[in-house]
Amino acid sequence: MSLNAEIRGQLFNYLLRHADDRLVLGHRLSEWCGHGPMLEEDLALANIALDLIGQASLFYKLAAETEANGRSEDDLAFLRDSAEFRNLQLVEQPNGDFAYTIARQFFFDVYDVLFLEQLSLSTEAEISAIGAKALKEAQYHLRHTQQWMLRLGDGTEESHRRLQDAVDDLWRFTQEMFVPDEVDHTLTAEAIAPDLETLRSSWQESVEQTLREATLELPEDSQYMTSGSRGGYHTEHLGYLLAEMQVMQRTHPGAAW
Amino acid sequence: MKMEKNTTAENEEKMPLWEVFSQAKSGKPHTHVGSLHAPDGTMALQNARDAYARRGSASLWVVPAEAIIASTPEDSPMFFDPAEDKVYRHPQFYKIPRSVRL
Amino acid sequence: MESQPHNRDISGNTALDEAQRVKRFEERIQAGERIEPKDWMPDVYRRQLTRMISQHAHSEVVGMYPEGNWITRAPTLRRKLGLLAKVQDECGHGLYLYCAAETLGVDRSDLTDELLSGKAKYASIFNYPTLSWADIGVIGWLVDGAAIINQTPLAKCSYGPYARAMVHICKEESFHLKQGYEIVTKLAQGNSAQKEMVQESVNRWWWPVLMMFGPSDSDSSNSEDLMRWKVKLFSNDSLRQRFVNGSVGQAKAVNLTLPDPDLRFNEESGNWDYGTINWDEFWQVVKGHGPCNRERMRMSRKKHNDGRWVREAARAYSARHPEK
Q1: Which of B15, B41, B65 lies at the smallest CB-CB distance from C6?
Q2: A-chain residues within 8 Å CB-CB of B36?
Q3: If 0-12 CB within 10 Å is exposed, 13-18 middle and 19+ buried, where does residue C42 land?
Q4: Alpha carbon of A43: minimum distance to chain B alpha carbons (Å)
Q5: SS (HEC) of C3-19
Q6: Among C72, C313, C318, beta carbon nearest to A27
Q7: Chain A nearest C-alpha distance from B12 (Å)
Q8: Is the Cβ pair C5, B70 closer than 8 Å?
Q9: Are C158 and C230 in contact (CB under 8 A)?
Q10: DSSP class of residue B23?
């Protein structure tokens, strides 16, 4: 990659965001292992978690190479504090019940398919390769979560209520996925990164269609929407998540595993 | 250990059983690889991939277990033995001159 | 690999009496034939196998708890992926085995019922806690290693669906064993805290793992029939000995000691003689008085109860949206 220092810096930041998204979300899903509503679903959630953590590893590896400062992918994943993490607030939300997990995953999957479709067109070959590979996985994830949105929304009164609660609760996290900042602008101008704003209306349309089909109410537009995660501003949940995830590396600095 | 109310699987309807067939590679036949439980065909197919094709598959079929009608071992002599001695179905029965290629 | 689906049968009756049927059945097994779901089999065979296979299935699923306990604390990305994939495999094994048991005429929900009510047993090794990351390596190495020794012969057992499930399972187990041993090696070659961690782990797990092979041959009921029906192919003690013989060298290779002062190579037999197992502990844990029995059952019941509304929703949806 022959980029100038400034672009390289932005790219490093950018890659971290997408790595962090996938690591944190994959980590949350892995918490379900052994606790799913049926064995078959345990397998499915573990599969999505593995795909996401695998994608995170690819992004971290590329980020480490881009930074070229001696940090490894594990250093980036396990030795940064919450304020240095760049994941969306959506993905750090706790699992809650199965409806909550499905709603969170569905909102992310719809975005992810749109995002990766564009990312696979990046002018940076290594990035477009990650995008293309991850896209196939994301399409599979979306199929799974979309089916569950329908089954829970249009299932029983109880499942409908739980899913509506989840949708209402998580809605406030869904706007910042489409709000570009300076880093996005720079990289979009270089045709390295997708233009996030162009993804929003497709996302809205897909989500609305599924919610309607699932007999769910669309949350109000005027609702408060969160922001700041790409700059390291998170919810109270991330601290606990990282404390658990990073404990071994923090307790034994420099050890090999 | 004391049995608490509602901690067992009683009073819950059974989840349908599906048989799974996988085609390992394009061109090969689908073979039976096992079964799983799912509420419907869409989820059964989705689950089949995670349960039976984690390490690869070209194609998957799922069939409700009750849809399969099978021969039984008692039928085997009647169904299958007669096939074994019909030599005229086998290529070796027929002689052609060595020099000819078919 | 061919397999037999569950199916509706359209058989007529044959006029053989019970004793003749048993004789024919045992002849088939002696001749190395496989018994398939629709074949005639003695009730005892059916019951024993249902018990054996479902117990095995329960073990895989309950076994997800001790190992799953460390997924969120796995120390590197590679270890995180490896452990999650392993536990996912165990879940898959449970699924294959429940499905194999179902070919004998039970529904998975009946088997779940037996597990949750405390009626069914599962491998008591999973009633021990995973207290350090090193336990994850040691489990992969010793527990999966012992399981492989127990399971490989089952790939040749007389009941078709069980044998085929075991072939499938054994293929996946080899990665589990390698992964475990790699973790152990890394720790044994690590800093002093890591070396201490892995040795301490071995000291805790070694004897419970030896108990995985079951009571000594002199105390084993059930075995005679199972051996004649080629469901159990080797005695508990012979498998346990095979395991000890293999493990000694593996431990030595990474400078770990096994916590048995009586471990000694026997020139005559070519085996490693080992000390006395604490059979009191074994029977206590089997009866429900191990460190984690209550907890494993509580988690299993909670999982089942928490999932009820999800399963109901899925069925309600399917009922209202029949597929064309």
Answers
A1: B65
A2: 40
A3: middle
A4: 6
A5: CCCCCEECCCCCCCCHH
A6: C72
A7: 13
A8: yes
A9: yes
A10: E
Q: Kindly determine whether residue A53 and residue C72, on different chains, have CB atoms separated by under 8 Å.
A: no
pTM to 2 decimal places? 0.92
- Chain B residues in contact with A147 by the CB 8 A cut-off are 42-43, 46
In the predicted model, what is the mean pLDDT of chain A? Answer: 97
Which tens digits make up the pLDDT trace of A178-230?
A: 999 999 999 999 999 999 999 999 999 999 999 999 999 999 877 899 999 99
| Stretch A139-163: mean pLDDT | 98
How is domain A5-251 classified at the architecture level of CATH?
Answer: Up-down Bundle (1.20)
Q: So what's the pLDDT on residue B5?
A: 40
Band (pLDDT 50/70/90 cuts) for residue B53 is confident
> What residue ranges in A68-160 does DSSP mark as E strands?
none
Reference A146, options A199, A200, A206; nearest CA is A206
Domain ranges for chain A, please list them.
Answer: 5-251
Closest CA to A67 of A132, A5, A109: A5
In 3D space, the residue among C231, C210, C209, C93 whose CA is nearest the CA of residue C153 turns out to be C231
Q: Which residues of C touch A53 (CB under 8 A)?
A: 77, 80-81, 84
Chain A contact set for C311 (CB, 8 A): 37-38
CA C15 vs. chain centroid, Å, equals 40
Residue appearing with tokens 């909102």: A107
What's chain B's length in residues?
102
Average pLDDT, chain C: 92
Kindly report the nearest CA distance between residue A57 and chain C, in angstroms: 7
Residues A40, B39: C-beta atoms closer than 8 Å: no
Under an 8 A CB cutoff, do C11 and B75 touch? yes
Residue C41's pLDDT is what? 93
**Measured distance CA(A12)–CA(A16) in Å, rounded:** 6
CA nearest neighbour of A73 among A51, A54, A96, A52 = A54
pLDDT band at B12 (very low <50, low <70, confident <90, very high): confident
CA distance B85 to chain C (A): 22
In C, minimum Cα distance to B54 occurs at C89
Which residues does C263 contact at the CB level (< 8 Å), separation at least 6? Answer: C244, C248, C272, C273, C274, C275
Residue C8, pLDDT > 70, answer no
Say if CB B71 and CB B92 are below 8 A apart.
no
For C258, residues 6+ apart whose C-beta sits below 8 A from its C-beta are C202, C206, C247, C248, C251
> Which member of B7, B41, B68 has the closest CB to residue C116?
B7
